[in-house]
Amino acid sequence: MFTSDSQSQKKPVTITLTGAGGQIGYATMFRIAAGEMLGADTPVRLRLLEIPPRGVKAAEGAAMELEDCAFELLESVDIFDDPQQAFEGANIGMLIGAHPRTAGMERADLLEANGAIFSQQGAAISKSAADDIKVVVVGNPANTNALIAASHAPDVPSERFTALTRLDHHRALAQLAAATNTRVSDIKKLAIWGNHSASQYPDVFNARIAGRAARGVLREHGKDEQWISGVFIPKVAKRGAEIIEVRGGSSVASAAHGAISHMRSWILGSGGEPVSMGVLSAGQYGVTEGIISSFPVICDNGCYEIDNSYEIDEFSQKYIDKTVQELLDEKEAVKTLGLLGESL
Description:
The chain is α/β, with parallel strands linked by helices. It has helices spanning 23-33, 54-69, 83-86, 107-128, 142-151, 166-180, 214-220, 225-237, 239-247, 253-268, 314-336; strands spanning 13-18, 44-49, 74-80, 92-95, 134-137, 161-163, 187-188, 191-193, 201-203, 208-209, 212-213, 275-280, 292-300, 303-306. It is 42% helix and 18% strand.
């Protein structure tokens, strides 16, 4: 453990980061320590969870680098291989580590492998974390992994478990800006619905570009509904696979940026504008209750609310129904495998 002499007036925030020895964890922790997630006036304490021996060694090396950076906001770094110890007193949980899908592995196998990980972590969070714990699951399949964790955390409100779809939100913003020759900052009310998978639905029909309906701006640039369904939607949904093919590895920096943005908005607010988060459905927009699905949400004062101002037409409904069905199938699969706890 090492400490800084920061004289910040704010109380330190304890952050548990799983998969800390992996690439996304590595890309995330330095930005957190620099104040990019919680602001330049909030000290942080990092608790890194990894698997021995290789994962723990990688985390130890990262901790050495964190020390060498001499971050003024970083009060301490501790490394664990036990989830209950790692989540002790945690205010934020960033669940990045997950079992990867390997060659020949069926989706049911992947769900089962991750079910064991996230059920254990959910139980540890329930037992050890602080009362104000907020969790974002990054490790795929993120939505269902978050559902598993929540179901094993009886002492934590289920809405505190969320899944990362901010990465998809950013991808959609970038593609829409490029297609209309506009700035990302000009685009409002874009949304990702459903699962963080190829079935997700990036919705531009409610979006505004510089105050105008996105659909009209797209038409001015020669982009009709055929372009939306045949180019834009698959481009966003399959962007991760495209990056793997080109880069030779999965998304790392962009995933880390998405996770940081997700938690920053949740805690510090989204400025009155909707952002995309995977959250527990209570039946909003006809999405089946009891699954973790992406919605447009507005964050304020450490809370989020699903934005109820979106209009869903027949075109959008078809895509939303498809991705929701995939989430229901995943939930049924993990339920059959006995991986869902009794909290949901």
